[in-house]
Amino acid sequence: MAAGVGALYYQYRQTQQVEQARTEAVDAAGAQALAMLAYDYNSVDQQLSSAAEGLTGDFKDEYLGLITDVIAPAAKEKSLTVQVTVQGTAVVSAEPDAASVLLFLNQITTSSDAPDAASSGSRVRMSLEKVDGRWLTSNLEPI
User: Fold this and answer.
1) Which domains does the chain have, with CATH numbers?
2) Do 132 and 112 form a contact (C-beta atoms < 8 A)?
3) Residue 8: what pLDDT?
4) Which domain of life, per UniProt (predicted)?
């Protein structure tokens, strides 16, 4: 009987941890998407470098290379400003230390070439890992 109670408690605890992971991962994904994708050409270097603090693994190195070599120079050259809002989220999968979240985003972009705001929608899948108690982005994939 004790083994049965122990098994039930273990299942209950696993379910609790997964539900907590779902909630925390969605919150982290929304905040990280805004940090990674929204910027102003006047402060693009600082903004996007700060966003890298929420990344992990090879993805962090790839992101830093992309912002240094492509995004920041283009943003400054064309006076780009990108505003992002998260319109919706959905958990694709969740475990206590890993999650995948689908994000529905709206982006508003202005530039010296196109001063009238251009709006676009996009969907991305963000993979997250819990590292030292923090949810960090390990991948971002447009869908």
Assistant:
1) 2-142 (3.10.450.50)
2) no
3) 62
4) Bacteria
